């Protein structure tokens, strides 16, 4: 093995370590943000539960309990939707960061592989052009597969975003019907 090959191998290993470090950093940052979001949501849920319980215990009759129950449910639906949106935004942002790192790494890999194939083709003995053509074909197929995978990930992200928007729109009628039910129950 010659020194240029060892240097190339060392450079490739260093690049792979940098990519793994970037991916791990993204994962830890995302986990840290998700933990903070969950802690804030848990604290808010606890405080709301205590306040709601105190209000329910202070109710004078069954109609007041029913009315309070419905009124207290409305903000919880809104909070749940806001939490879901926050989690979706966080996951979507992390997915974009990971995709960006992977795309840049793949682009670098593709350039290096194409360069190596061209060098091998130029210095190949008789019959080596068949090997180089096979390698170019494999590189083309892997590029096509990576592009399809990226496209599919984008489509899934778009579907998830559309579902989140639909869920948000659906929550508004639920909120309105809960309010109407509370009024109806209180009128009895």
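Sequence proposed for the structure above (188 residues):
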């Amino acid at each position: 093995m010659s020194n240029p090959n060892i240097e190339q191998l060392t450079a490739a290993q260093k690049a792979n370590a940098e990519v793994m470090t970037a991916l791990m950093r993204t994962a830890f940052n995302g986990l840290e943000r998700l933990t903070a979001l969950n802690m804030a949501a848990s604290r808010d849920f606890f405080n709301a539960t205590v306040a709601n319980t105190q209000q329910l215990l202070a109710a004078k009759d069954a109609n007041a309990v029913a009315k309070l129950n419905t009124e207290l449910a409305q903000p919880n639906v809104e909070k749940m939707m806001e939490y879901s949106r926050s989690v979706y935004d966080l996951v979507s942002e992390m997915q974009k960061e990971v995709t960006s790192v992977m795309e840049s790494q793949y682009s670098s890999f593709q350039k290096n592989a194409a360069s190596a194939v061209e060098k091998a083709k130029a210095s190949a003995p008789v019959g080596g052009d068949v090997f180089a053509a096979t390698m170019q074909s494999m590189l083309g197929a892997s590029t096509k597969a990576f592009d399809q995978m990226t496209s599919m990930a984008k489509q899934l992200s778009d579907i998830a975003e559309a579902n989140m928007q639909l869920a948000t729109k659906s929550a508004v009628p639920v909120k309105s019907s809960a309010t109407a039910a509370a009024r109806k129950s209180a009128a009895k």
